[in-house]
Amino acid sequence: MTTTILLIRHGVTDWNVAGRWQGHTDIPLNDDGRAQARKLARRLSDWPIRAIYTSDLHRAQETATWIAKRHNLRPIMDSNFRERNGGIFQGLTTEQLNSKYGDIWRQTRYDGSAPPDGESMLEVGIRAYSSFEKISYAHIGETVAIVSHGGTLNILISHLIGLPLGKPASISLRGNTGLSIIEIDDSGLRLILLNDVSHLSMGRKDVESGFSMMTSTE
What we know:
There is one protein chain. By secondary structure, the chain is an alpha/beta fold. It folds into two domains: 33-84 and 120-194, Phosphoglycerate mutase-like (Rossmann fold); 88-118, no CATH class. 41% of the residues lie in helices and 17% in strands. The chain has a six-stranded mixed sheet with strand order 3-2-4-1-5-6. Strand 5 (179-185) and strand 6 form a beta hairpin. The protein is globular. The N and C termini lie close together (11 Å).
């Protein structure tokens, strides 16, 4: 019996485009982000998704809602899947962070410590993994989706593939609406897809055949 958990990054926002640290700031999707979410929803429309969990921040909620509509589901909000709280860094670009908070910024990037008024990577990992574990036990043998954020998913996936909690791997989750897939069965846990955004360049027929190719090996 295999449990399949889809880990999804939200669609793009204006702050993503500008390179601003969003954190807990509740920035909505822009028009491109909504188009991305619709394409992902179309890709997943025939997948046997039984539940959709999402960060309670608007950009994740809206992404989840597009997917949920295809499955007659209502997204379940969970603040544990929020992005890392960037504290005083929120709203600033990398250039501004280097200029205004150089030493503190570099330190938080090096060791994952909390920025002033923010969260450490370990704190993010603890809350995200806690909810992931509960969901995986609640949906044994099912397929479920979790919509979250690039930083949070990096920390979570890194732990799932064997790194200490709060220590992110050198993996890229930059693609908005990127799809990662975790499978869990009696032999353990496997990461079988990482931040795939092929739906953004697929036509409708390609999206539908992509599902058929994935399920044919099960």
